[in-house]
């Protein structure tokens, strides 16, 4: 894919600010939600504290579990296969209730703070500076590369990926859901792949490559800003551990 070029592009448009509301907008799925029961319920509203009944941190007013909607307008003529692709009206094929976070809280379980905020109540500002790689010392560059290397080796603590179409997701016995662990860096690569991959039309038929959910449309810039932010944040929360 044109990935290296895009990499340059997203760095150039760096200052653009993106606001995203739906926590599952294009993530794959929180590990807590992919049990057979969880999938059958269509609800993905984990608790940030792991306490039963505290969906989305509702006991401390961090958020609540809500029914979600997606744009229901017809697809354009460039995509004639309505209903055949799990990514249409994402993430409704998998989940139709997710967390909506209040105030400064964020994340799939409202356990994180919005960008630029920190503290138990997420009301303290922090400033995150993106350094120019050309002005970094050799040691700083090495620390960055080491952190990338750690990201490549460390299993993502929260998210798992779906490696089958929804139709096959409950497994051959109906009770062994088809999800896999993935490392933090590979998750970054996977989510890009998943968004651009072809639409499967059935055995023996050529897959349809005429739709590309992250490039061929007005979401191109915002999608890629968020894509990069996700890796950036996954690495920032581990920066002390990884020594950068
Ligand atoms: C939400 O998803 C569940 C599980 O797939 C389904 O049973 C339910 O009918 C859906 N609700 C709506 C409003 O679509
Ligand atoms: C969110 O954080 C800002 C910045 O510290 C603060 O001024 C504001 O009161 C916070 N909002 C809520 C709802 O806590
Ligand atoms: C899945 O497991 C549950 C609980 O063990 C059982 O009640 C159910 O019948 C199983 N479903 C299928 C399709 O095997
Ligand atoms: C993923 O890893 C976690 C712990 O790191 C483990 O409990 C879980 O069974 C693994 N899940 C899969 C689908 O391999």
Automatic annotation (TrEMBL):
One of its GO terms (biological process) is melanosome organization. Pathway: Pigment biosynthesis; melanin biosynthesis. It catalyses: 2 5,6-dihydroxyindole-2-carboxylate + O2 = 2 indole-5,6-quinone-2-carboxylate + 2 H2O. Keywords: Copper, Disulfide bond, Glycoprotein, Melanin biosynthesis, Membrane, Metal-binding, Monooxygenase, Oxidoreductase, Signal, Transmembrane, Transmembrane helix, Zinc. SUPFAM superfamilies: Di-copper centre-containing domain. It is found in: Melanosome membrane. One of its GO terms (molecular function) is monooxygenase activity. InterPro entries: Di-copper_centre_dom_sf, Tyrosinase/Hemocyanin, Tyrosinase_Cu-bd. GO terms for cellular component: melanosome membrane. Its main location: membrane. Residues 215-232 form the Tyrosinase copper-binding domain. It is a single-pass type I membrane protein. Its cofactor is Cu(2+); Zn(2+). The chain crosses the membrane at residues 7-27. PROSITE patterns: TYROSINASE_1 (PS00497). PANTHER family: 5,6-DIHYDROXYINDOLE-2-CARBOXYLIC ACID OXIDASE, TYROSINASE FAMILY MEMBER. Belongs to the tyrosinase family. This is 5,6-dihydroxyindole-2-carboxylic acid oxidase. It comes from Xiphophorus couchianus (Monterrey platyfish). The lineage of its organism: Eukaryota, Metazoa, Chordata, Craniata, Vertebrata.
């Amino acid at each position: 894919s044109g990935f290296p070029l895009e990499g340059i592009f997203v760095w150039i448009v760096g200052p653009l600010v993106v606001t995203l509301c739906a926590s599952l907008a294009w993530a794959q799925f929180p590990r807590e939600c992919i049990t057979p029961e969880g999938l059958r319920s269509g609800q993905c509203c984990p608790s940030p504290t792991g306490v039963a009944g505290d969906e989305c941190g509702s006991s401390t007013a961090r958020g609540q579990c809500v029914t979600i909607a997606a744009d229901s307008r017809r697809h354009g003529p460039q995509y004639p296969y309505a209903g055949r692709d799990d990514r249409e009206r994402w993430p409704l094929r998998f989940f139709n209730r997710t967390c909506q976070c209040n105030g400064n809280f964020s994340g799939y379980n409202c356990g994180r703070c919005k960008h630029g905020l920190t503290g138990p109540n997420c009301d303290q500002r922090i400033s995150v500076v993106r350094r120019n790689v050309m002005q970094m010392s050799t040691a700083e560059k090495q620390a960055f590369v080491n952190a990338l290397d750690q990201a490549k080796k460390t299993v993502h603590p929260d998210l798992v990926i779906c490696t089958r179409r929804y139709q096959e997701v409950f497994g051959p016995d109906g009770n062994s859901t088809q999800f896999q662990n993935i490392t933090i860096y590979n998750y970054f690569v996977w989510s890009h792949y998943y968004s651009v991959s072809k639409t499967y039309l059935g055995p023996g038929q050529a897959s349809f490559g005429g739709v590309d959910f992250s490039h061929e449309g007005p979401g191109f810039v915002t999608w890629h800003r968020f894509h990069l932010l996700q890796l950036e944040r996954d690495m920032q929360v581990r920066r002390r551990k990884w020594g950068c």
